[in-house]
Amino acid sequence: MVIMKVGGLNARLSYVIIAAAFGSAFQHGFNLGVINAPLKLIGDWMNTTSYDRSEMYLTETEKTMIISIMVSIYCIGGMIGGALTGFFAERFGRKGGLLLNNIFAILAAVLFGFCKMAHSYEMLIAGRFVIGINNGLNAGLCPMYLSEIAPVNLRGAIGTAYQLVLTISILFSQIMGLESILGTMDLWPILLALTGLPAIFQLAALPVCPESPKFLLITKDEPVAAQRALTWLRDTANVHDEMGEMRNEAEASKLVPSVSLREILTNPTLRIPLVISLMMMMAQQLSGINAVIFFSTEIYKSAGLSEEAALNATIAMGTMNVLMTFASLVMVEKFGRKTLMLAGLSGMLVDVFLLFICLLLKDVASWISYLSIFLVIFFVVMFATGPGSIPWFFVTELFAQNARPTASSIAVAVNWTAAFFVGLGFLPLQELTGPYVFLIFVALLAGFIVFTWFKVPETKGRTIDEITAVFKQTAYGANSV
Ligand SMILES: *[C@@H]1O[C@H](CO)[C@@H](O)[C@H](O)[C@H]1NC(C)=O
């Protein structure tokens, strides 16, 4: 029995992880990263397209506006997709939802691929919206599926696979966007349309994988199918213990088969884990990661790096992100979620404070600029330690089956909303305050550290039953969030 608890990763399970994560997280990371490199080319194309259509060039303001719409509509799509997670997960299943979601990716790829030919930047904007919906759904469905098929002792590591693939695909998109590859005026539509490939991959690879056994047993009440799925995944007929655990969870949720939005907000045993999930999602987005990445170009420039060296530094940063996320995949089962969140957030806090000082003093000595480059990369490393990966699957660990879809919907939608506001607010704030904008992140990080320290429970190695029991105790004890 002990042996059964320790192992767990077999060839079949690895195959399912690859089919799910490469098909889904890849979309998410790729589309996060892909738009940056060709943004100027796309702006120029919009300008000439406008002239072709109406013999009028765009003004600088019009161009900025169209580009802002294109960039922000992606986040709005993400919020909608995130909010749809619960509906998709319940109606079509976790695997079914993931498969269906590929329709959005293929539609977007077609819009991207042909927008230039059709002289239509409306198509490009529509494509960004549609792929946003796809990415939002993936961010909810994929960690849910992974977490539900994972054995307890590997749940964190398998959940981290989502962020690992995401960082790999950001890096991939940056490399493909290089001018020597696809980052040219002729080829950028192909660059964007590459997002169709992971969809085709998933449509080919995922159908042979089983549906989540928890979904089959608890939501659909099909014990035979659930046992068959579990037997396939574990590659052994000896799944008695795990079936028993799932039956307990099923018994517990018989009274309330599916938790509504209203219930999750009013019932304290659900509200506490919801608040925790939302705080973790916000910690990820409001930690300043996007601001620091955005600032990195300017930091490299002020350190006197050539354009090419700056590009290399960006690729180095992406590589560190991948390597460190991989390390966190191993560490998350050893040290636990809470420890890694705290370590990552604390490292980011110290780092961003030093970065702020370096930016203030950057004209004093040239070595300070080099120190800032190091700090930017170290910030990304600290992010990857925990805050980058843990929030995605943490929400799936805090809720039992009946509340998980609704909770994921809310959490993923909040994540995208936070990203949207950071994207919208950072530049104006930075223009207003200069480097002082980083002090906002220092304050936010401090708040998230205190919250994590006092309110977040450790979920490593615990069954969902054990975790939800903690919240019942907290809710009906003296303590509450
Ligand atoms: C649009 O293109 C024209 C002609 O190349 C150029 O003069 C103008 O500055 C461009 N406008 C913008 C907003 O880029």
From TrEMBL:
Residues of the Major facilitator superfamily (MFS) profile domain: 17-460
Recorded topology in the membrane: Multi-pass membrane protein
Record key words, sorted: Membrane, Transmembrane, Transmembrane helix, Transport
A single Gene Ontology CC term: membrane
SUPFAM superfamilies attached to this UniProt entry: MFS general substrate transporter
UniProt-annotated location(s): Membrane
Broad class of the protein's primary localization: membrane
Superkingdom of origin organism: Eukaryota
Bilayer-spanning residue ranges: 12-30, 65-87, 99-119, 125-146, 158-176, 188-209, 272-297, 309-332, 339-361, 367-395, 407-429, 435-454
Keyword flag Transcription regulation: no
Pfam families: Sugar_tr
Protein name, as recorded: Major facilitator superfamily (MFS) profile domain-containing protein
